[in-house]
Structures are given as C-alpha cells and as structure tokens.
Amino acid sequence: MQNDLHLLEGLCRQHGIPVTKNALKLLARYAGLLEAWNLKVNLVSRKEHAPVIVKHVFHSLLIARIHDFKPGEKVLDLGTGGGLPGIPLAILFPEASFLLVDSTGKKIAACKAMIKELGIENVIALHSRVEELKGVIFDTVLSRQVAPLEELCAYSARLLKRDGVLICLKGGSLNEEIAEAVLSREKHLGFPASVDQLPIGEIDPMFSEKQIVIARW
Questions:
Q1: Residue 130 Cα distances to 1, 44, 136, 177, angstroms
Q2: Interatomic CA distance for residues 186 and 50, integer angstroms
Q3: Phi, psi of 121 (to 5 degrees)
Q4: 3-state secondary structure of 52
Q5: Strand pairing report for 210-216 and 160-171
C-alpha cells in the first residue's frame, strides 16, 4: 500500500491533481480493496499487469483535470462496476455527493462493502437499472463502462440538469460513435449539442488509446 501511495502522489503532483494526504491514504486503501474484491467478483480485468492504482484509480482521477466538482454537486456514476470512477472522485471531492448505480448486484455489494470500510460518507451505491431511476436529477453524469455514447446520452438526457455534463472515460477510435450520438440527439431531448474529446495518451503509455469524452447540452 505504501508503494501505491507514493506512486499515486507523484502522478497527481505531476499532472496537477490536488490531493490531500488523507485522500491519498484512502485512495491507496481503495486500490487494495478493489484488488481483493476482484478475486471474488469480476470488477476489473484480471488479465492486465498494470498496477490497479494507475490503471483504474489514477485513470478515474484524470477527470479532475477537466472538471472541478463543487460542494453540493450531485453526481451519478452510471454502470459503476467496482466503483469507478465514482469512488476515487468521491474521495478527492468529499463535499460533492455521488450515487453509484449498477444492474449487477454482486458488484454493488462489493462497492457497499468498500465504501463502508473506507468510511466515506458522500457515496451511495444502488443496485438498479438506470432506466428505473425516477425523480432524481444530477449536475454531472460519469461513466467508465463500454456502452456506446449514444446509449449513455439517452440515459443522461433525462437525468441531467440543463447545464449539466456527461463525462465518459472511453477507448479506441470514437469518431463514428460520437457522430452517431450527435446525429441522434433529437431522440434524446436534444442531448448532446456538442461533444469534446481529450486524449490522455501523453500522460502514460497505458492510456495510449484512451480519451475523456465530454457531452454537453
């Protein structure tokens, strides 16, 4: 855990992500818990050799380079899996409120156990399909799952405030996927009006085909 802590601290400093000592400890603990739970529940790929603290935790924190989560901000993590990117960002921004949703009960059970062990109070994990969410509205929707952008935009359109944003961590060639989402916006309340891409390959070779995708009204 100590090695993870120092590695993450150096990466955050290098890339301008402000993080407290307490947050670093929690993030390193979360990485350890994620690895342990992954032996029981398939939360992240078991085939990769890259450190979880970089491949998954730091990858999630990169969203903080382009979005500053405000106190009181309501955030939905759509298809959270093992709590990514929601748990790392909730640790980094303790005054924002995060709802983690996934349709797989075992994954949400793992998230609930990790949240409890970490003692973080600004996160709720909910076993639900996103279609079942009613009467809630969010400032920001996050997603790291592999669903097509049009599908994520369809879900987000009815859950986002009109000045809200959808922020996705995605990989591969996305031009066709983005074009389809924009062309389909009239089916989804006019969302998204615009989509921006931010490649993150210069940060680390393991992110060579990864991008942050930001969809706006």
A1: 34, 20, 11, 21
A2: 41
A3: -110, 0
A4: helix
A5: antiparallel
pLDDT in tens, 171-214: 988 999 999 999 999 999 999 999 999 999 999 888 988 999 99
* Angle at the Cα of 60 from the Cα atoms of 55 and 63, rounded to 5 degrees: 135
pTM for this predicted structure: 0.95
* Cα 46 to the center of its chain, rounded Å: 19
CA-only gyration radius of the chain, Å: 16
- The DSSP bridge partners found for residue 197 are 213
CB atoms within 10 A of CB 98: 29
**Structure tokens given for 135:** 């009467």
Both structure tokens of 95? 């005054």
**Element (DSSP H or E) covering residue 146:** none
Contacts of residue 54, Cβ cutoff 8 Å, sequence gap at least 6: 7, 8, 11, 204, 206
Cβ contacts of 155 within 8 Å, gap of 6 or more:
78, 130, 131, 141
